[in-house]
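hey all, quick one before standup. I had two proteins in the batch that finished overnight and I want to keep them in one place so we stop losing track of which output belongs to which input. First protein below, input sequence then structure tokens straight from the run.
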Amino acid sequence: MKKADLHMHTTASDGTDFIAERLEQADEKNLDGIAITDHDTMSDDLEQRSTVTENGVELIAGAEVKCEVDDIGIEILGYFLDPNDEEMHRMFSRLEDFRQARMEEMVYRLNGDLNAEIDYSDVKQFADGPVARPHLANALVEKGVVDNPNQAFNWYIGDDCPYYVETEKLDAKEVISKIHANGGVTSLAHPGRDLTEENADEIIDELVDKGLDAIEVPYTYKHKIDQGYDINFGVEHARELAEDHDLLVTGGSDCHGSNSDKYNIGRIALRYDHVEELRDLAEQYQGTDY
């Protein structure tokens, strides 16, 4: 049975490995396809919507975009994207501006209270793409404020910590519309992390009205729980939501690379018939004017 992992990151955002390394890892894990879904950007090494590479692994161009619906932060995965689309890159530029403003504010607060003596350039040096908290954590280690990145998150920059700053977000409708105009399909990432059992039906109803195509069902929730994430529901409820709302299914490991604590490529094995359904729908969008 052919299988795929449709959620992973590279050095273009907060991953530790290049695409070539991702393809080698996929081959080692007997995966037939992977999607590169970097945060709020697309790797410069992605040239086509999808291509079968030399080792036989299909490489699918994607992205994971932060946005919000009803003031709830979510992430939308886009698949079979055109990496050369200027409109998409304009959206990514806006998101990068949001990230820079957020990071500069976090640096300002850390310097004010902890005398961290870091500036934005100290953080940016660790990022090949958009800046994110893992890059700030590395800067804090380099300056001797903490001993390791986990301490940075646990003490200072984690979601519930004193120096955490929320990033400005786009509305989910705009993100979904941009991905459709690009010719890609959309999926709600890790719903059990961002939604609750109480609000999931209502939020997904609204997202469907905005054009949502799919929902991420197989996902490494157990690994996230082991890492200390708050998980509201898991794969079974996500599958029920997909069925109840007549959505396609995606799935992936959310792997961040071999030098991270999120090295779990291949733990999710999504059947390839789901990939083909996504491809078919993307081809419909590619023939439509938005």
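OK second protein, same deal, sequence then tokens:
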Amino acid sequence: MCRVLAYLGEPLPVRNLLYDPEYSLVRQSYSPRMMNTFLNLAGFGMQAWDPASLQPDDPFTYRATTLPPFDRNLRFLASKLAPTCLVAHVRGVTYSSEAVVTETNLHPFRFEGARVVLAHNGHLRQFPRMRYALVEHVRPELARCIEGTTDSEWIYALILSQLDDPWGLPGTAELAEATTAALRILRDVRGAHGIDTSSPVNLCISTGRSVVATRFSFDYGWYPPEDEMLETDLPFCSLWYAIGGEYAECDGGWEMSEAEAPRSVIIASEPLTTDHTTWTEVPEYSLLAAELTPDGVGLEVRDLDA
């Protein structure tokens, strides 16, 4: 199962999220604490928004199938970038002759010209049975953009198709509504094809100004006897967040400082630190929406009606 991370707030060096904390995202690629039987060694990707860069509305993109702990280019970049928004992802796939490790399958996904990106932790079981039933729910111009072989890219195209303008800049509320609508379509298509196998869909969607994340699973707990993936997601897929003033090193450890008006939020598959006291677990079947405001970062966590 993959690991995903998002940041929104004041400029923050990328290394403070990917490398420096004791359980940074890069470490989670080979030593995840909340999924001990599965490694995430199928590549890394990130999208990062920096208002001070050229064309600030377009995120900096980095994707590589190399293992992130040994990716020197990524380490150098992480020391130089300080974005106000970041979505990063380490990909995990099971060992299989059908698994495809290629750049086109790396998250976060972003079609050329789109203002929305998506990263996914989970997998839609029996996806080949339902793949082409989704075509009627995806705009043709978006379906033509799909290059990879993953269910995640289809989910991305499906969410974009629920927006009034898939190439525009949606507000936080519209992005949340499109995400919920896409999950309902997936539920209906699964039902029409008789698919009821447990399928986690933790999503992280961002425009650089807002982040929408879900902690969700279809038919949680239902597995066929021969399912080889059972051990990887028998626990409900985890999702946590830390919100406050500044994420920084303090007394030899990393923590989110307190702030009366929050200025930063981190959303991650699991906490980046051994000490969880400054982290909050997102409830199961919930949607988290964060946005940059003139006063800092606004955050809402609500039940996901899908």
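Flagging for whoever picks this up: The radius of gyration is 18 Å. Residues 172-192 form the longest helix (21 residues).
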